[in-house]
Amino acid sequence: MLRIIPRSILPGQRVARAFAIRKYATAKVAFDVPLETHTDLQQANKELADARDNSSEVVESGTTALKHAYQENTGFGTRPIYLDMQATTPTDPRVLDTMLKFYTGLYGNPHSNTHSYGWETNKEVETARKHIADLVNADIKEIIFTSGATESNNTALKGVPRFYKKTKKHIVTTRTEHKCVLEAARAMKNEGFEVTFLNVNEFGLIDLKELEDAIRPETCLVSIMAVNNEIGVVQPLKEIGAICKKKKVFFHTDAAQAYGKIPLDVNDMNIDLMSISSHKIYGPKGMGAIYVRRRPRVRLDPIISGGGQERGLRSGTLAPSLVAGFGEAARLMKQEYSADTEHIKKLSEKLTKGLLAIEHTSLNGSPDHHYPGCVNVSFAYVEGESLLMALRDIALSSGSACTSASLEPSYVLHALGKDDALAHSSIRFGIGRFTTEEEIDYVIKAITERVEFLRELSPLWEMVKEGIDLNSIEWSGH
Ligand SMILES: Cc1ncc(COP(=O)(O)O)c(C=O)c1O
Ligand code: FES
């Protein structure tokens, strides 16, 4: 029966048509008979899924969700071990489970308040909001959904200063923020605001005294990230919050890499705004939130104008499947917190110990203020890019921005005072809920062997082994 469905129609239509065809085939009114209720659609979907699994034609086209979920080969060879958790995390299957019903029966617009389609979706949206708020001790009314931490950071960095611009035209942030904060701050500079970029010490930590001195009567916002995405350093949020409270300025933190992974309490830490991303906590991509304090109220100019959804702070119809997936991901972060933390810490310690056992390696960031799921190591006398090439069986990212077109080494490592060579030879390892001990064992062994191999090819390494101090050499040219 499936074979008579044209391939060009969309999956949703396919479901509807398959159902209609089956139900009304004898009456020969196949395509124009509407479905009665969404329960019918769900039933039809189930039947179609069952049929699909038995149909070689559809399996070949590779459209089933499960086929993608367990796909081993996406056309780029055998997939490597995934250790790039700061870039994104795999979707937890329980999250996907929560999301699926929004692509079938629960299709109502959550903002429709005149019928049950709207109410039933809205109920799910509010449940998700509660899970997200709970994790940081916020009120549900303080969570505004966005498309991700980039949008949340833009909302904070642009929205707050624009609202208070008549009297307050100064922003404080740091040099090691994510690009979206740095770029948003730069955009505000172009709008006539002043921005102070705080330095960090060799461990990546800000100096609290320097922060206090940087705040002026016309400062409206301090934006300091919670966990750094390159080196995993955790800033002293509670102390920063106390300073901001004392100085009466709003405190925004980019918690994309921290939310659900370290203890965060917006009240205890006096955080006024917080950016959160769903895809860093095993939720769907393209989804996030911004926490905006209500008491005392933080005012901001929305960066998106429209129908006034999300308390007028972020217009546009929500994507309920993404919202619900995000909510479930947050609920799971709370439920699994102890298990995740213990697991990640154990693997992180093993990996760090294994990598630092290689000579001339060093850990970047602060050993004492550190999220263990992000391990950044410099391998002296090895070019980072060559190492990444030699490690194609492991999905990693060099700490440097060299993956971008700029070919510049990491600005974060530079801010820590690392020289270009060391910044270029750094690699970030991201460990998460689904990383296994076997994977870590493999990675330690592979890196040890390949660093040794690459160093054997390096003339610098030869000189180091001969005891020549490389700093004493005057290089010509370059
Ligand atoms: C610290 C930090 N901020 C912001 C972002 C951007 O998040 P999103 O991908 O949700 O826009 C990321 C993700 O790379 C991040 O690591
Ligand atoms: S690590 Fe890529 S250019 Fe140095």
Automatic annotation (TrEMBL):
Record function comment: Catalyzes the removal of elemental sulfur from cysteine to produce alanine. It supplies the inorganic sulfur for iron-sulfur (Fe-S) clusters. Plays a role in both tRNA-processing and mitochondrial metabolism. Involved in the 2-thio-modification of both 5-carboxymethylaminomethyl-2-thiouridine in mitochondrial tRNAs and 5-methoxycarbonylmethyl-2-thiouridine (mcm5s2U) in cytoplasmic tRNAs.
UniProt KW keywords: Iron, Iron-sulfur, Metal-binding, Pyridoxal phosphate, Transferase
Domain Aminotransferase class V: start-end pairs: 81-443
Domain of life (superkingdom): Eukaryota
GO cellular component: L-cysteine desulfurase complex; mitochondrion; nucleus
Source species: Lachancea dasiensis
GO biological process: [2Fe-2S] cluster assembly; intracellular iron ion homeostasis; mitochondrial tRNA thio-modification; tRNA wobble position uridine thiolation
Record's catalysed reaction(s): (sulfur carrier)-H + L-cysteine = (sulfur carrier)-SH + L-alanine
PROSITE patterns listed in its UniProt record: AA_TRANSFER_CLASS_5
Upper classification of the organism: Eukaryota, Fungi, Dikarya, Ascomycota, Saccharomycotina
Family: Belongs to the class-V pyridoxal-phosphate-dependent aminotransferase family. NifS/IscS subfamily.
Enzyme Commission code(s) on record: 2.8.1.7
Name this polypeptide is given: Cysteine desulfurase, mitochondrial
GO molecular-function terms, A-Z: cysteine desulfurase activity; iron-sulfur cluster binding; metal ion binding; pyridoxal phosphate binding
Names of required cofactors: pyridoxal 5'-phosphate
